[in-house]
Design goal:
The chain is built from 10 helices and 17 strands. It has helices spanning 38-54, 122-132, 183-194, 254-258, 262-270, 280-292, 295-303, 307-350, 364-374, 394-408; strands at 2-10, 14-20, 26-33, 69-73, 89-98, 101-102, 107-110, 120-121, 134-135, 138-139, 169-170, 172-182, 202-207, 211-217, 220-222, 355-358, 385-387. The strands form 4 sheets. It has a 7-stranded mixed beta sheet. The longest helix is centred in the C-terminal third of the chain and has 44 residues, at 307-350.
Amino acid sequence: MLSFTIGLDIGGTNIRCVKLSASNEIICEAHQPLPDNLKDLILVVTDLIVECVFGESRDVIKSTDSVTDEFEVSDARGDNAGSVNDSAVSEITIGIGCAGTVTPDGTIVNSPNILYLDGVNLKDEISAALQKRNKSKNKLPNKLPNEPPNKLAGNKLSNPAVENPNNTLIKSVVVKNLVIENDVFTATTAELRFGKDVNDDFIFIAFGTGIGAGRVIDGKQYRGANNFFGEVGHTVVTERQDLPVCGCGRVGCFEQMASSVAIPRMIAEMSQHIPKGATVEDISNLASGLKSNNLKTDLTKSLSLSTEKVDRQTQKEESKSKNASHEAFEIIDVLTDWMVVGLKNIAKICDPGLIVLSGGLMNGIILETLQEKIAKFEAAEFPPIKLAIHNQLGGAIGAALLAGLSNQN
């Protein structure tokens, strides 16, 4: 029987999925944007699981193929594992990290950035969906074409294992176990397991659509009395009452000031020159253009113009582009100022030996600006700070690891 572990990270913007071998190699990785409703989210999650199990691309959302072979969902003991011929079975364990507060039974109590998940038992929904999913005859490849499995840092791995010797025809997939956890908790698990220079006392902070934290004390992850530790994004950092109400129901939350959801508001408040609908990447590109004085590149990226159009408009738009660059950098300056405020609060409250940063905002000029600001403080005010080893994939990898560990308990 083939055995794999699947890990998913359901964040406020994207859903990422990885398949790990028994030796914790990444065999397959896939991702899709977060849908705007529960029905499509469940469909995307199950499609990503299918894609990673069988190592093929599928038409996500519209995948309604009528096929013959099926998934079976077992309990943690794997009661259904012997119900079909072992040579035709792929046994998988699934771990899912989801943004929001999660109970041990898989219920999403509150997810401020994915409101349609509030009160949903995600474990039951996905289990039911997997039981309905079928799969036509496919051969699981030994590895993806021209792409050997990635090796996770920290593991001593032998020659990459042939995961499916003889290309055995997979006739059924048995889901041995399904575990749901908070997404930052799972990302912290990956850092604890594989992170470089990580001590046994650190706090993990993810800056993305929202802001969340994971805590490690004496080498063990801390959950809190109610399993809800880490919602630092919903601590109030400003008394401004003109801000939109946060998804948690409060006003002035940390993530309203320092996550990607803050950027559109900042653009509306501060911009005269930045194009309407600019993305985080656009803002970073504009600010980078200011530092490099590369106005032609800046204009191309920010206004989505072709090189030919830029050549004709460079002189005409140069002043506008320069102003836009200044405003973009000002937005990043304000955003990172608030990041520093929140990180200082967390450091004062938790007194960690290390802060690990992660998330979609932790790259490029935003990360560089934040690091420059933190470097100006005395060592006593901030513990050492590092970037997570698996940044974007950490949540999915950690979810897979936790699911694998649950099988041993």
